[in-house]
Amino acid sequence: MKREEKIAQTYLKHLGYQDIVYEPNGNIPPDFLLNGKIAIEVRRLNQHYKSESRLEPLESLDFKLIPKIYSILKEYQHKQASKTVAVCIDFERPLKVSNVLFKMVRNTLDKYLSEFGQRKTIHINKNLALTFFPLDGNLGPRLSLLVLVMATLEDLL
Description:
By secondary structure, this protein is an alpha+beta fold. The protein is 31% helix and 29% strand.
């Protein structure tokens, strides 16, 4: 079951439908049959960003950027710390995802460790920033990071 179909199934259950059959006719429409009467086909609508020469799905940058930064942040969880911070990833297009960019993220995190626990926004470049928000309490003896993601307003419109 695709991610979009799982979301739709959860929503249909939330609406109170109990007799939900997934792909009642095999891997052809509809995706769901409700109460033996209502057919549901799940469709995903994509927004696009016009880059220099082509249209690019908005989520393609998210899929390349967020998991990698999250993975980098997890590398720092082995560090001992007495505080917990939330990390907000704020980005806008155009942003070239590359190993150079991720090295800049690591260098930024290395520098921030000496100030760990303080609220601070660090600009990796003109289109990517990390903001660290101290949280009350400590979620454990190791460096604790909570990741939040922000995109530009244009991504939401």
